[in-house]
Amino acid sequence: MHNFDFAKPSTIAEAAKALAADGAQALSGGQTLIPTMKQRLAAPGVLVSLTGIAEMQGVCMGDGGLHIGAATPHAVVAKEAKAHYPALAALAGGIGDPAVRSRGTIGGSIANNDPAACYPSAVLASGATVVTNKRKIAADDYFQGLFTTALEEGEFVTSVIFPIPSSAAYVKFNQPASRFALTGVFVAKYADGVRVAVTGAGNDGVFRWKEAEAALSGNFSADALSGLTVDPDGMIADLHGSAAYRANLVKVLTGRAVTAAG
């Protein structure tokens, strides 16, 4: 690991100022960044920790839905979101292992936008709003491809606002070693329709399965998916599963999520 300086601001304004320095990199839970630095694949000159900012922590209901601070660990979301958004809490409780859940944060997860991470599917399926130190970004505009988001230089996630669905569920097929999603599907039903987001399967990262959304908006039942197929083109193919295998998993897990949500 290369030498670096460390800053731990106590406010969003202080963090923004620290991140304006050359070579500065935001640090949240560090579950991806620290291992990357250990492998010398990243060498930021300054690490700016966001975990000491009180206004970026916690779970509460407010205007627009459930507000979750970006520096809130997965374990806290699993506990405190359960009464308001059980499907989201269950997702948080199934990430990694207890050590990962005690350190990893929702903000770090969606800022990194790993193609197999769980949280992006919840954010996209919920039509959530990503709040940064500069603006608010709709989920459909936020995720822009593999490890790519709408975040600009010096911009970082401060919170996420989740509208509460009438019913929802997340089902994932674990990669057993990492507990990342080999494929995961989050289904959320709202008054104006159903949203289905898939993680772990697409070469471009998290995506919405709009054909399933249309079918489920008319009939919220696993039977509504019977005539649908998922095109394997664009699916991830690796030693854990072929593109066709993942395409099939998308349909199977969507059906299971609908059944669980119902």
Helix content: 25-40%
Give me the side-by-side strand order of the main sheet. Answer: 4-5-10-6-7
- Runs in which pLDDT lies below 50 for 5 or more consecutive residues are none
Give the strand tally: 14
Largest sheet features: 5 strands, antiparallel
| Count of alpha/pi helices | 10
Mean pLDDT: 94
- What amount of the residues lies in strands? 15-25%
Structural class, from helix and strand content?
Answer: alpha+beta
How many structural domains can be distinguished in the coordinates? 3
Describe this protein's structure.
The protein contains ten helices and 14 strands. The strands form four sheets. A five-stranded antiparallel β-sheet has the order 4-5-10-6-7. Helices cover 31% and strands 25% of the residues. It has helices spanning 12-19, 33-38, 74-80, 86-93, 98-103, 106-112, 119-125, 139-142, 210-218, 243-261; strands at 5-7, 24-27, 46-49, 59-62, 65-69, 129-132, 136-138, 143-145, 148-149, 157-162, 167-174, 181-190, 193-199, 207-208. The chain has 262 residues and is an alpha+beta fold. A hairpin with a 2-residue loop joins strand 12 (181-190) and strand 13 (193-199).
